[in-house]
Amino acid sequence: MSRRSPRPPGARLRLDLGNGIAIGPGKADILEGIRETGSIAASGRRLRMSYKRAWSLVEAMNAAFREPLVETRRGGSAQGGAALTPMGDRVLDTFRRMETRTEAAIADDMAALRACLPDITPGA
């Protein structure tokens, strides 16, 4: 599900791919929302992001990668929309797999750091 608020404690993976190209949770969430809703606008709304901002991120990703990640169709609500291309599916799936592996790799260290925090009793 694209709406991940609030995010659980843990690492936030942001990848700098070189030449000013980066992908992180925000761009991945936009792609996931498009996959699930078929719409850039709906994906942005789920993330409480303006359509202009969501569209800007899609344009940036489409320009950055060898092939576009998102394809759009004009035509309004009845016929328009957006979908991930095969490259978009590949990029999103690879990023999500990297997030999962990162969380697993640092789980013991995260537990050790959390053990250094004071106990907080809910409602106290």
UniProtKB/TrEMBL annotation:
* Gene3D superfamilies reported in the protein's UniProt record: Winged helix-like DNA-binding domain superfamily/Winged helix DNA-binding domain
Q: Which InterPro entries match?
A: Molybdate_resp_trans_reg, WH-like_DNA-bd_sf, WH_DNA-bd_sf
Source species, domain of life: Bacteria
PANTHER family cross-referenced by the UniProt entry? DNA-BINDING TRANSCRIPTIONAL DUAL REGULATOR MODE (PTHR30432:SF1), TRANSCRIPTIONAL REGULATOR MODE (PTHR30432)
Q: What is this protein called in UniProt?
A: LysR family transcriptional regulator
Question: From what organism does this protein derive?
Answer: Marivibrio halodurans
Q: What is the lineage of its organism?
A: Bacteria, Pseudomonadati, Pseudomonadota, Alphaproteobacteria, Rhodospirillales
